[in-house]
Design brief:
The protein is mostly helical. The protein has a single domain, classed as Intergrase catalytic core (hpI Integrase, Chain A). 45% of the residues lie in helices and 7% in strands. Strands 1-2-3 form a 3-stranded antiparallel β-sheet, with no helix packed on it. Strand 1 and strand 2 form a beta hairpin. Helix 2 packs antiparallel against helix 3 and helix 6 runs antiparallel to helix 7. The longest helix has 14 residues.
Length: 146
């Protein structure tokens, strides 16, 4: 008689589907940025070019930006482990444009979840650009758009 462990080892697990990675086409990125108010464009540009989450973007400090190595240290992440976000050409352009008005420890000093939520909810109600709603707060829910 086989043990239960042996029976479990003989069970073949189903294969997991491959994840899907999709990058915005240049025309889509341009449409997205044009749909954003000027204060939101650098945030969206950095998000799109680095894959950073909303919370990570709100916590970036100038001391965490290493332009020489082309990366940003993200100390507090979703899984609790620090990681680096690497800078491409668009991300470097965003950082350079923000350095001109450097007046705070944070890269985006006025950026708060409520500010992003109020903007994204207004956009959701207008239904002008679904992609900008997705990029600023994820899938909108009616309870957040009161």
């Amino acid at each position: 008689m086989r043990s239960r462990t042996a029976n479990l080892l003989s069970v073949k697990l189903p294969e997991l589907p491959e994840g899907r990675t999709r990058h915005l086409e240049p025309a889509e990125l341009q449409k997205l940025l044009l749909a954003c108010p000027p204060w939101l464009r650098p945030v969206v540009g950095l998000a799109v070019s680095t894959g950073m989450r909303r919370g990570e973007l709100m916590r970036i400090r100038w001391k965490d930006v290493d332009q020489e190595r082309g990366r940003i240290l993200l100390e507090l992440t979703k899984n609790g482990k620090p990681r680096f976000a690497y800078l491409n050409q668009l991300a470097n352009q965003v950082i350079a444009s923000l350095e001109l008005g450097k007046s705070s420890d944070l890269i985006f000093p006025g950026l708060t979840p409520s500010k992003l939520r109020s903007h994204s909810c207004a956009r959701a109600k207008q239904r002008e650009s679904r992609i900008s709603v997705f990029m600023t707060c994820g899938t909108p829910s009616r309870r957040n758009c009161a």
